[in-house]
Amino acid sequence: MSIAKPLVDYAKSLRPQKGFTQSFSAFKKLMKYHRRYYWFVMAIVILAVIRSILFSVEPLYTTFIIVNVIGPPSNLSLLWGYLLVIILAGIGYAISNFVLIFVHGVMSQYIVRDIRTEYYRSLQGKSFSFYDSAAVGDLTSRATVDLQLVDMFLRTWLGTVLNAVFTTIIIIAIILPISPIMTLISMATMPLIFYFTTRLWIETMPLFRNMQLIMGRLTSYIQQNIVGMKTIRIFRREKDVVDGFKEVESIYVNTAISAGKIQSIYMPLGPAILTLGIALVYVYAGYTLGIPGSALAVAQVGDIILFARYMMRLTFPIRDVSQTLGTWIAAYAGLERVLEITDAPRNVEDLPNAKDIKIEKGKLELENVTFGYVKDRPVLKSVTFMVQPGEKIAILGATGSGKSSLIYLIPRFYDIQTGSIRIDGTDIRDFKLVSLRKQIGVVLQDVFLFSGTIRENIAFGKPGASMDEIVQAAKSARIHEFIESLPCGYDTPVGERGVTLSGGQKQRVTIARALVGNPRILIMDDSLSFVDAKTEREIQSAIEEATKTRTTLIIAQRFSTIKTAEKILVLENGSIAEFGTHNELIAKNGVYKKVYETQFVQKASPILEEAGGA
Amino acid sequence: MSSSYGTFSTKQEERRKRTVPDRVLIRRVYKYAQAHRRNLIIGVSATITGALTGLASPYMHAIAIDRIITPKNLSGFIWWIPLFAAIILGNYLFQYIQTYQMRVVGENVVAKMRDDMMEKLQVISLRYFSEGEAGRIISRPTNDANTVRIFLRLGLTSILVDISSILGAFAIMFYLDLRLSLLAITVLPIAILLVWFLGKHSRAAYRRTLITTSGLTARMQEDLAGIKVTQAYAQEKETEKKFLKSQDENVKATIRAILIGSSYTPFVIGLRLIGTMIILFYGVNALLTGTITLGVLVAFTEYQFAYFMPLVDLVTMYDQYQSAMSAIERMFDVIDTKVEIQDPPLERSITLQ
């Protein structure tokens, strides 16, 4: 099966859906975000009215000039007055326009900020299950690229819509008294324009939505490709990757071109129809002028010019509205992608009566714990065991036996379905999440360090930790000497712009991070298997020191780790197969003994000896 | 303590000086467009003719006023109305062709460039994918490609339309009345200077928003990559604080850019107003002495409108053009990367049993 198959299948499965109601509900949600800024909305409405009125002054006064100044009879003395009105209206228009754009822009930034903050907060609260299947690149692009589309819409939408409405109303108000019939004729095309704009919206919206969905997937696909490049090279799947990409890319291009075809038909239609309306005005004017006995007055010529110019003025707001609808189509799909995450419920939450509880001893009890990521497919089945304060338990098991799930249940990275987990006799769900997690030291399987200095990274476990505490933790994690040897010591930056640490060094920094808060309980996912002998010994020594006085659950890959544990717990298919000391389990002659003999005695040790001796 | 986690590289990316001249980049993009040369030629010609037919409308009004309505020569409508309708229809058709053909070209060019990038990424040395570089590489086939796509979809046609509209409007104005045209464009040098000066400031402000946006993106990316650690230590509040700070910087920078970006519109409108005044004042006097006709005067006020709007539009397009060029340069950067180790073709490689 090609690597790209899921993506290709996804892109092919997308059918244009009529998203009208969805778009409407997304719009309603967006309106809710405006509520906090109703003063801005009010200001925009008022400014829009002023702007539309002032926008409509110039053609009217130009007509006055034509009729009253040029005449006949001509009267040049009036010219200055009319010019003054045009200038004042123009200045007023320029100012109100500027203020409106600015107020609108500020409001849009505040709203985008609110949406993004809400999105970010919801992500903070998502459980590990969510992140197990989520792509960071995709989640980031929702907050940036997708929200940028929402931003584009928010910047101008209200001003544009109000501008079209008010300008139309004001122009009708001006021309209606002059000639009701001509007004009717010139506005006759309006419903047509409205109809075609709606059609454009309905027909392109599903296509744009699909384009955005495909683009989102393509972005994560590229990301996965780049992050996993090594693996792809090893298995020589490069061609699969590129072929799949090209296939999906061509689906995108075809959708974009189909959307372009619809847009190209409808978008220029509005202004064209409106301009044809002007022709209708001329036809009518020509007809009335042709009626015998109706004398051609200059006033009428002025009126015709006035009508024609106002019609031309209307093409701008109408064009803008159709563009705003275009940005809404993109914004709506983007907003949907953001709110999909924001609106999803949190899976791990504080119970209403949760408290801050201090862990004194660190006694750990699991009773009949059943847990599964998907309902009815338990990963752990009725697990029961007890760990005395300060005891170290090594957990063994094949991949998928539920090791990681088991230890991650303690700080409530996932919530159990049945049974209970107690620390010093208190159910972990009675702790506030913050209180629980702050008191449990965690070393995750993937060694992640934030960019920043080493000191910041170690202090992450306890903000405001003193330098002594940091050094102490680093010493326990056997990384102090290495840090001291760096050019800037503890203030050496790591990550993109700093030093590159090896896997083993990173792991020891993460151990120091777990120790800095001096937790009573420590859980470690020590799955760093491919390390050289020297690193192995260093990590080993760090783990030994770190776990001395703490209740520890550690997933072990190496015999050296298992050796130092008080008890060993062997998991098989989500159940405890064996639990006891090394000697007990060897005497039992079961799974552990078999693993011990095949994995550790025959394989690992000789290599270790060899490498250690070299 | 340093608060700017992980933003260094993106900052540098934005500040990096462009090294490849525009014409080299354009020529290379044109090579990609050659597969669709027919579409490109049809699209560009339709764009220019579309802009020009759009300009014909005020001129047609001038004719209607001067030759039909004022002299009561109503039979003139018999030829005027079909001609006018034909121009509108032509304008519509050209715009239709332009939008469609340019879309075909733009989408295909960007897709081909992306394909080439993806192909290249599969063969270049693995050391390009070292930690920390990943984010930068990812942004090239995604963000950069998107910038170019948006530019080709809207920006390029806008620039073509704007330039043809301005030149076309000038041509018609000079044809209609030389003296009035010269008067009407007296404000033009001031307008260009002003627009250029303010445009420079707005570009600087815009770049600043880009930098803060990349900072925000980097922040978000890192926070999410390390979310399990953050949750494990219950440090959500602390990371959120840093995130909000970085977001506020972005909001402030964007608001500033909006302020500067919109601040030149009143000046431009003011200058246009002065232009209209000059036209009306001299126009009315010229009309009364019989040097020009009413239709010409009305047409002039419209054409003045017709060349000022595209002028303002061009300035905003300049930003889009610049960022598209930088994006194109970065994309070619990937496509041009030298392959250090050449693998044998798949069919000739040996499969180990």
What secondary-structure arrangement, pairings included, does this model have?
The complex is a heterodimer of chains A (614) and B (353).
Chain A: H1 5-13, H2 20-34, H3 38-55, H4 57-70, H5 79-124, H6 128-133, H7 136-178, H8 180-187, H9 190-227, H10 229-234, H11 238-266, H12 269-290, H13 298-342, E1 364-371, E2 380-387, E3 392-397, H14 403-408, E4 418-423, E5 426-427, H15 433-438, E6 440-443, E7 452-453, H16 454-459, H17 467-476, H18 480-485, E8 493-494, H19 503-515, E9 521-525, H20 533-547, E10 551-555, H21 559-564, E11 567-572, E12 575-580, H22 582-588, H23 591-613
Parallel strand pairs in A: 3-10, 3-11, 6-9, 9-10
Antiparallel strand pairs in A: 1-2, 1-4, 4-5, 7-8, 11-12
Chain B: H1 8-15, H2 22-33, H3 37-69, H4 77-123, H5 134-176, H6 178-184, H7 187-225, H8 227-232, H9 236-289, H10 294-335
How many H/I helices of chain A? 23
How much helical structure, as a percent, in the residues of chain A?
55-70%
Judged by helices, strands and strand pairing, the structural class of chain A is alpha/beta
Major beta sheet of chain A, specifics? 6 strands, mixed
Span of the ends, CA to CA of chain B: 55 Å
Average pLDDT confidence of chain B is 81
For the largest beta-sheet of chain B, the strand count, sense and barrel status come to:
none
Shape, per Cα inertia axes of chain B:
elongated
Oligomerization category of the chains in this entry = heterodimer
Terminal-residue CA separation of chain A: 44 Å
The proportion of strand residues of chain A reads 5-15%
Mean pLDDT of chain A: 83
Strand order of the largest sheet of chain A: 6-9-10-3-11-12
Number of helices of chain B: 10
Order of helices and strands of chain B: HHHHHHHHHH
- Cα radius of gyration of chain B in angstroms: 27 Å
Give your account of this protein's structure.
The complex is a heterodimer of chains A (614) and B (353). Chain A is of the alpha/beta class. Chain A is built from 23 helices and twelve strands. In chain A, strands 6-9-10-3-11-12 form a six-stranded mixed beta sheet. Chain A has a four-stranded antiparallel beta sheet with strand order 2-1-4-5, with no helix packed on it. Chain A starts with a helix and ends with a helix. Residues 604-614 of chain A have low confidence and may be disordered. Chain B is mainly alpha-helical and 353 residues long. Chain B is built from ten helices and no strands. Chain B has helices at residues 8-15, 22-33, 37-69, 77-123, 134-176, 178-184, 187-225, 227-232, 236-289, 294-335. In chain B, helix 1 runs antiparallel to helix 7 and helix 5 (134-176) runs antiparallel to helix 6 (178-184). Chain B starts with 7 loop residues before the first helix and ends in an 18-residue tail after the last helix. The model of chain B is unreliable at 1-14 (pLDDT under 50). At the A-B interface, helix 4, helix 5, helix 7, helix 9 and helix 10 of A face helix 3, helix 4, helix 5, helix 7 and helix 8 of B.
